[in-house]
């Protein structure tokens, strides 16, 4: 396995069907939001859909969806070349280069490999912060991953409207404070919000994530799932989080 690694990298076991991913702390490593989004998607899709993950980074969401669904095809689109190269090595490490395709490209001009009206499902864990908001990281890769510098919510919706099949579905994870803007833009681009689930760090704190499902050309009608609580007051994961991660709760 060391043959797949470069300086500063490590291999992380995902605890799912023996899948592994290459990570580098100097870049933007995946977090709980990617795990929760993959879980949210896998509960709602049936059959063998064609899936594309926008801003795939090191390929965590395609790997998790491969392990959790029966997708006919999974594609990851990423603009940052170092992350594209790392994600491709992760797919090779798992023997999945044929099953999960990592494409280098910009969602605003994705190129000829990505065709309109092709995908059943678009997934994205996008940058949460507006381009001018908050402190920027000295690492360009982390800044791009966190701020809407190269990819905005509107860019994702323009892509989804064009590339999704009619009645295809869009899944996002984002910050609750951006939800009003997101819903307004989704309607503008004819993607109707159908399901929301709020994620709370603990029962006494405000939600810090929201999981969103939309449907292209869908009819109005929004449902909300029961809230997902991450930690008990004692600082231990709730049973639902252990279940989502596929981990056994310590005795």
Automatic annotation (TrEMBL):
Any Pfam family matching the protein: MTS
Gene Ontology BP terms: methylation
PROSITE patterns for the chain: N6_MTASE (PS00092)
A GO molecular function held by the record: methyltransferase activity
The UniProt record lists the keyword Mitochondrion: no
Keywords attached to this entry: Methyltransferase, Transferase
Top-rank taxon: Bacteria
Membrane-spanning segments: none
Domain Methyltransferase small: 35-133
Protein name per Swiss-Prot or TrEMBL: Methyltransferase
């Amino acid at each position: 396995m060391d043959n797949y690694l470069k300086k500063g990298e490590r291999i992380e076991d995902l605890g799912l069907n023996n899948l592994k991913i290459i990570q580098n702390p100097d870049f933007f490593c995946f977090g709980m939001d990617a795990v929760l989004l993959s879980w949210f998607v896998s509960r709602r899709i049936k059959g063998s859909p064609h899936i594309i993950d926008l801003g795939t980074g090191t390929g965590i969401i395609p790997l998790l969806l491969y392990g959790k669904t029966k997708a006919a095809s999974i594609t990851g689109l990423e603009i940052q070349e170092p992350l594209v190269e790392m994600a491709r090595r992760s797919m090779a490490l798992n023997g999945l280069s044929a099953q999960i395709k990592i494409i280098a490209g910009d969602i605003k001009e994705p190129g000829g490999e990505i065709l309109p009206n092709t995908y059943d499902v678009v997934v994205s864990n996008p940058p949460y912060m507006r381009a001018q908001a908050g402190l920027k990281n000295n690492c360009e890769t982390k800044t791009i991953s966190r701020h809407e510098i190269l990819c905005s919510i509107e860019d994702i919706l323009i892509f989804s409207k064009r590339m999704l099949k009619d009645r295809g579905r869009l899944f996002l994870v984002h910050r609750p404070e951006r939800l009003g803007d997101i819903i307004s833009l989704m309607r503008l681009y004819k993607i109707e919000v159908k399901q929301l689930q709020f994620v709370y760090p603990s029962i006494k704190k405000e939600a810090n994530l929201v999981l969103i499902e939309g449907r292209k050309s869908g009819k109005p009608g929004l449902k909300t799932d029961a809230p997902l609580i991450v930690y008990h007051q004692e600082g231990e994961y709730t049973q639902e989080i252990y279940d989502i991660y596929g981990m056994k709760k310590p005795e």
